[in-house]
Amino acid sequence: MALTACETVDTSNGVKTRSNTKTGALIGAGIGAVVGGLSNKKGDQARKNAILGAGIGALAGGGVGAYMDRQNKDLRSELEGRNVYVTRSGDNIILSMPGDVTFSSGSADLNGGFMPVLNDVATILNQYPSTYIDVVGHADSQGTDAFNMDLSERRANAVAGYLVGQKVKSERIYVAGAGESSPIASNDTADGRARNRRVEITLRPIQE
């Protein structure tokens, strides 16, 4: 669902994000995709056009799997033991960054100690430019829906903005907050809430 009228632009990093993503849509570069991996095909085409216009090439069908295999291997090798969880799902790669590692409680300011990890993530992303990068923030159920939505958006934008600062092309990036709508653990325990406070980066191949 494309809801570009609700977009705002953070001029400090050039990444577009939505001012109110209560509907759970990824908004950026004038297109939309539903949080949770269900892409808007028309939106992906517009995004692809912008990416190709930025000089980034698309992948041919037979080479997609091998390309993502190499990227997955390099990410796992670089991020082993560094509090970023790398998951392969078909041709997609998901990086999950726990909020208690990347941010202080209730804050959208990146922890300084995590920046070297994001530097390494950016290095790999720049080595494999033929991927879409969807950055989505998530929150636990503590606090109001509005607070959690806003916090998840700001955290996602902080991560995306840092990557752009490391020369990752902004045309590749979508930013959104999902609030507390997509927990991966129970919010009834401290450990579960810590797992739910996270930023996820989904990498999808740009195909011809």
Automatic annotation (TrEMBL):
<dbReference type="Pfam" id="PF13441">
    <property type="entry name" value="Gly-zipper_YMGG"/>
</dbReference>
<dbReference type="Pfam" id="PF00691">
    <property type="entry name" value="OmpA"/>
</dbReference>
<feature type="domain" description="OmpA-like">
    <location>
        <begin position="90"/>
        <end position="207"/>
    </location>
</feature>
<dbReference type="InterPro" id="IPR036737">
    <property type="entry name" value="OmpA-like_sf"/>
</dbReference>
<dbReference type="GO" id="GO:0009279">
    <property type="term" value="C:cell outer membrane"/>
</dbReference>
<dbReference type="InterPro" id="IPR006690">
    <property type="entry name" value="OMPA-like_CS"/>
</dbReference>
<keyword id="KW-0449">Lipoprotein</keyword>
<dbReference type="InterPro" id="IPR006665">
    <property type="entry name" value="OmpA-like"/>
</dbReference>
<protein>
    <submittedName>
        <fullName>Inner membrane lipoprotein yiaD</fullName>
    </submittedName>
</protein>
<keyword id="KW-0998">Cell outer membrane</keyword>
<dbReference type="InterPro" id="IPR050330">
    <property type="entry name" value="Bact_OuterMem_StrucFunc"/>
</dbReference>
<dbReference type="InterPro" id="IPR027367">
    <property type="entry name" value="Gly-zipper_YMGG"/>
</dbReference>
<dbReference type="InterPro" id="IPR006664">
    <property type="entry name" value="OMP_bac"/>
</dbReference>
<keyword id="KW-0472">Membrane</keyword>
